[in-house]
Design a protein that fits this description.
single chain; 229 residues; alpha/beta; 5-stranded parallel β-sheet; 11 helices; 5 strands; elongated
Length: 229
């Protein structure tokens, strides 16, 4: 029975010590061979095109904060089947989701053991990469956040539909950062009238102050969406 060819690896990291550590990790395993290295995202793109590795181990923060993610995106535009494993110190969901949006195969933290890194490479090559507990937790949190936002959006839209045309206009001006006196002048009404309309808005939203209402509306980009309708 013929021995399958080794998994050809490209390692991209701007820290020489980490590059060497990974090269040592794979040196003792005949099923893996490091064919190239890169110290920047730009170089990783070049080396990927030149050597066409089976698997790339990609750091994120190199010449820029998102260098590895940007490199992964460029590589997958040309080589969509090339397996990329992110190996990074970042466990923030912004990095995780941005990385997976480029089509990466796996996401590991740099404190992963040599065994974990080896297993990740073999799994990626075999199209068997797992959803890691850290990633699963981030996905669950994101689904919960989206659901909360959906519920909040529906509730806010319902309240807005119950505002009078004058109250809606006052709310829009508040969300643009206008002060009560400015709104009164712009609408050519008494200051007390604006105060009463804002109090009515607060009661309908069941919120303690105008700043909370404004933040809620602006976070959901309600008026921005309405302008596009």
């Amino acid at each position: 029975m013929m021995t399958p060819p080794p998994i050809r690896l490209l390692i991209a990291d701007d820290m020489e010590a980490h590059l060497r550590r990974l090269e040592r990790t794979f040196a003792g395993h005949p099923d893996c061979v490091c064919i190239a290295r890169a110290s920047s995202g730009h170089e990783a793109v070049q080396q990927a095109a030149l050597h066409k590795p089976d698997v790339i181990l990609m750091d994120i923060e190199m010449e820029s904060q998102y260098a590895g993610i940007e490199a992964a995106k460029v590589i997958h535009e040309t080589y969509p089947d090339m397996k990329i494993i992110v190996l990074t110190v970042h466990k923030d969901e912004n990095f995780i989701f941005a990385a997976f949006q480029t089509g990466i195969t796996d996401y590991l933290l740099k404190n992963a053991s040599d065994t974990e890194v080896l297993e990740a490479v073999r799994a990626a090559h075999a199209n068997a990469s797992p959803i890691r507990p850290m990633i699963a937790e981030k996905i669950r949190e994101e689904f919960a956040r989206v659901k909360r936002a959906e519920n909040s959006l529906l509730n806010i839209i319902q309240i807005i539909s119950e505002l009078t045309p004058s109250e809606l206009q006052v709310l829009r001006l508040l969300c643009e950062g206008k002060k009560r006196k400015q709104i009164a002048e712009e609408r050519c009404v008494e200051y007390e009238t604006i105060k009463k309309q804002i109090n009515s808005i607060l009661k309908k939203f069941q919120m303690p102050d105008a700043a909370t209402v404004v933040q809620t509306i602006n976070d959901l980009r309600i008026f921005e969406v309405m302008r596009k309708l």
